[in-house]
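Field log, afternoon session.

UNIT: design team B
ACTIVITY: writing a sequence onto a fixed backbone
BACKBONE:
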């Protein structure tokens, strides 16, 4: 399984939303501030790790199937 690591810059943290800049073109991404490591502040650099998870995908599909069956 391939794991991708990307450097991201913490641009702003406003209440519960954090904006990070990622990639060579500094794409803006909004995240829940709860996802940040403890002690993170504006101006910090982080390493974001992205990994495909088939297990999580299957779990969400089962949940969605259960919801649709109830409807």
């Amino acid at each position: 399984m391939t794991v991708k690591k990307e450097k991201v810059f913490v641009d702003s943290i406003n209440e519960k939303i954090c904006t990070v800049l990622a990639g060579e073109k500094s794409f803006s991404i909004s995240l829940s501030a709860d996802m940040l490591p403890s002690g993170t502040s504006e101006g910090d650099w982080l390493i974001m790790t992205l990994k495909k998870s088939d297990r999580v995908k299957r779990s969400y599909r089962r949940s969605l199937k259960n919801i649709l069956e109830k409807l």
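LOG NOTE: Strands lie at 3-14, 17-22, 27-32, 45-51.
NEXT ACTIVITY: expression trials, pending approval
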